[in-house]
Design goal:
Largest sheet: 5 strands, antiparallel
Shape: elongated
Strand content: 15-25%
CATH class of the largest domain: Mainly Alpha
Structural class: alpha+beta
CATH superfamily of the largest domain: Trigger factor, C-terminal domain
Number of domains: 3
């Protein structure tokens, strides 16, 4: 039972609550039964001793302590639902009175989702760019595909642009060999970007068995910060030179890629792929502009430090997963950048606030526009997923669980709100 609400900040409340004796009885009985199963009580089988006997054996306070978490939890959630409080995270509970035979009194400090007063979002109008595909992009992709099918022919001549060369590299700083600065049989496509600017140019005109020494300034963003912007001496030896014979761009080339009958089919598919890619970019930019304008014109309550902390932690977990998926340990990634986890979370804070405000906007749109997701829509999405993972029983069970259905419902209704805004704001 809620006795009193005290506002600490706009987004933090202190609730003074009381649980009556009658409300506690079911939990106390269950707690006593649980205790009697753990201890031996003379004359009774485990779990069969009456409440009064257990109370005399262990003391009633022991029963109260055993039941306390469930009593508080049930009472707290009933209060939250009754008062329609949008809380985040777990409350901070402070027990005020815990005496057998008396009501339990406790304080709960809760963090609330901040409120937002939206601007007139229906009057926000943004011009959505049209999809335009630059023919040069198609040419670039075709050239990469052509190079991927090139035949390597060992030649005994001077190196030219677009040759593939195998070289030994030694690196020195003031004539001192660098640690990990010796590389054997390194492959380079001459003319393609190299991590050290100017390196490629020093290969042109050399031939097999040639050796050369030269110096280059390391780039400012070089991964080894101790070498960034430094002048480093290089000693190289050409081991072999390969001419890259490119296939002719025709129907046979298209067939060699395994998906196309003619070269025109290949070009059409590349154009279609680029259109999809460009559409995704335009949609993302368009969506960001809509939310940016709504944020700038709306009034938001102050976001609690706790909520910002939760969002930055979520963002760091997303970063960690992305890094791990690339086969890199997060510890090595942090060491390479000379940053800590806390450094990242601090940098994430401005974006975390934007993400939180975007969520608040979406929730208000859902409420204002009475957006809903039907059971049929959820079932359709799940059926589509079940078809894709038809052979994996574990994943199928997860997709059909109530928790996943709740998650999917949230995702679908959020998507509806975003699509509503994009349709409303587009001109």
């Amino acid at each position: 039972m809620l006795k009193k609400i005290k506002e600490i900040t706009q987004t933090q409340l202190e609730l003074l609550c009381e649980v009556g004796l009658e409300e506690m009885i079911p939990y106390l009985n269950k707690a006593a039964n649980k205790i009697s199963q753990k201890i031996k009580i003379s004359g009774f089988r485990p779990g069969k001793a009456p409440y009064e006997i257990i109370k005399k054996t262990v003391g009633e306070m022991e029963i109260y302590q055993e039941a306390l978490d469930k009593i508080i939890s049930q009472d707290y959630f009933e209060i939250i639902n009754k008062e329609k409080l949008k809380v985040i995270d777990q409350p901070k509970i402070d027990i005020q009175i815990l005496v057998p035979g008396q009501p339990i009194v406790y304080k709960a400090i809760v963090d609330l989702l901040p409120k937002v007063k939206l601007c007139d979002y229906k009057n926000i109008k943004i011009k959505k760019p049209k999809i335009k595909i630059d023919p040069k992009k198609i040419d670039e992709i075709v050239k990469k595909l052509q190079k991927s099918k090139a035949k390597e022919v060992l030649v005994n001549r001077k190196i030219k642009k677009e040759d593939k060369v195998k070289i030994d590299i030694e690196m020195f700083d003031n004539k001192i060999p660098l640690e990990d600065g010796q590389i054997k049989n390194h492959l380079i496509i001459v003319g393609e970007p190299f991590f050290i600017p100017g390196f490629n140019e020093n290969l042109i005109g050399l031939e097999q068995k040639d050796e050369k020494e030269f110096e280059l300034k390391m780039p400012e963003n070089y991964f080894n910060k101790n070498l960034a912007n430094k002048i480093i001496n290089f000693k190289i030896k050409i081991n072999s030179v390969y001419q890259m014979d490119l296939p002719e761009l025709n129907d046979e080339f298209a067939k060699s890629l395994g998906e196309f009958k003619t070269f025109k089919d290949l070009l059409k598919q590349l154009e279609k792929n680029l259109e999809i890619e460009e559409k995704l970019k335009i949609d993302e930019k368009f969506e960001n502009e809509i939310f940016e304008q709504i944020m700038n014109k709306s009034n938001f309550e102050e976001i609690s430090d706790n909520l910002i902390k939760m969002e930055t932690e979520k963002m760091f977990l997303e970063l960690e997963q992305e890094i791990v998926n690339q086969g890199i340990k997060i510890k090595d990634y942090l060491n390479h950048l000379k940053k800590t986890e806390e450094d990242f979370k601090k940098e994430f804070q401005p974006l975390a606030i934007k993400r939180i405000r975007s969520i608040l906007i979406i929730q208000e749109i859902i409420k204002n526009e009475n957006l809903e997701v039907s059971e049929e829509e959820i079932a359709e999405q799940i059926n589509n997923l079940l078809k894709v993972y038809s052979t994996d029983k574990e994943i199928q069970e997860r997709f059909q669980s109530e928790n996943y259905k709740k998650y999917l419902k949230g995702e679908l209704i959020n998507k509806k709100a975003i699509e509503f805004l994009k349709k409303t704001c587009a001109i």
